[in-house]
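Quick one, tokens below:
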């Protein structure tokens, strides 16, 4: 805020500052969701179910999206930002796969119900982290081009 008041950036510089402020909000939410994942994972008792679903693959994909979205901002690389947006389909697909796998595990053995619900919550948090990484990538494009996804150019 001091930068805005003292330097009074305009045009491209103002876009970069405003994008950084928006990215901070998404990064804070990512941190909150990561903390929730850590808390839930402490209570998962049935490792057998956890090892049979694609949560680890989903986590790796979400982490990569976050890292790549921030790197695209630093490098001002719109093509890398577009790749992050496309990668969200992978995380979304993995969420659907994890949900299907958990339904099958629950149908096979109802004793694992609590673990299945915990794992599903973790998967949903990972899916949301992917969405926040996508938001960051979309703001990267705006910081470089001045056009935000969904806005018409006039």
């Amino acid at each position: 805020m001091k930068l805005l008041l003292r330097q009074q950036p305009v045009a491209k510089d103002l876009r970069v500052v405003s994008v950084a402020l928006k990215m901070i909000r998404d990064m804070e939410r990512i941190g909150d969701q990561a903390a929730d994942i850590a808390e839930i994972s402490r209570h998962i008792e049935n490792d057998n179910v956890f090892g049979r679903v694609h949560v680890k693959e989903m986590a790796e994909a979400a982490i990569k999206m976050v890292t790549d979205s921030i790197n695209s901002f630093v490098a001002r690389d719109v093509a890398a930002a577009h790749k992050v947006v496309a990668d969200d389909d992978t995380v979304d697909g993995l969420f659907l796969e994890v949900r299907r796998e958990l339904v099958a595990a629950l149908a096979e053995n109802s004793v694992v119900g609590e673990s299945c619900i915990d794992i599903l919550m973790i998967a949903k948090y990972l899916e949301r982290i992917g969405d926040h990484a996508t938001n960051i990538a979309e703001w990267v494009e705006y910081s470089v081009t001045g056009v935000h996804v969904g806005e018409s150019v006039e």
